[in-house]
Amino acid sequence: MEFLGSASDASCITRARRRQAYDDSTEFKSKNLHAERRRRQKLSDRLLTLRSLVPIITNMNKASIIEDAITYVEVLQRDVKILSDQLLEMESTSEEKEIPIRIDDQINNAADDQEMKTNGIEEDVEVTKINGKKLWMKIVFEKKRSRFTKLLEAMTYLGFEMTDTNVTTFKGAILVSASVERTYEDTLEVQETKELIQQIIRSI
């Protein structure tokens, strides 16, 4: 009888250990499952955000969204380079312009600011409506190194697409005029767009 009791106890212990091992394994799998779900949800949220920023999505699957986003960024980078090159070309040939300007690799920002004030020029943003989705903007701001490039980057980041862009530098200031569209919105409000551009100018 004592032997049977010992065998029964051993069997109970074995079953208990197996149950504990099963419970531990189940808990581990459950934690992994929750972690994987969180990871997938985070990835899904990021893809949704990316999709909202890219104007043209050829397909709604993950690979297409990422590929379209890469293509869009490359297009924007090319546009920024083209406009930056245009500005540099204008500065390098400034002596041929009707309005003479001084271009120096070591631009004195304080001098430019003083030059603007001396000539009665103030930073300004004008926005008018062309149609429901397109506006015309004219911006005057102080000429500082890389400021025009930062303006383009900020406008692009906020979803604006600039076309028919014209850039002029004069008397310590930069004048930028362009048609503007916001790629993921059907309409553009004049006042809202003006305030956004003013915020960009103050921050760069």
TrEMBL record:
Q: Which GO terms describe its cellular component?
A: nucleus
Record keywords, A-Z: DNA-binding, Nucleus, Transcription, Transcription regulation
Q: Which SUPFAM superfamilies match?
A: HLH, helix-loop-helix DNA-binding domain
Annotated localization: Nucleus
Instruction: List, in alphabetical order, the Gene Ontology terms for molecular function in this entry.
Output: DNA-binding transcription factor activity; protein dimerization activity; sequence-specific DNA binding
Q: Which residues form the BHLH domain?
A: 27-76
Taxonomically, the superkingdom here is Eukaryota
Question: What PROSITE patterns does this protein's entry cite?
Answer: BHLH
Q: Enumerate the InterPro entries for this protein.
A: bHLH-TF_ACT-like_plant, bHLH_dom, HLH_DNA-bd_sf, TF_AMS/ICE1/BHLH6-like
Q: Which Pfam families match?
A: bHLH-TF_ACT-like_plant, HLH
The protein, known as: BHLH domain-containing protein
Q: What is the lineage of its organism?
A: Eukaryota, Viridiplantae, Streptophyta, Embryophyta, Tracheophyta
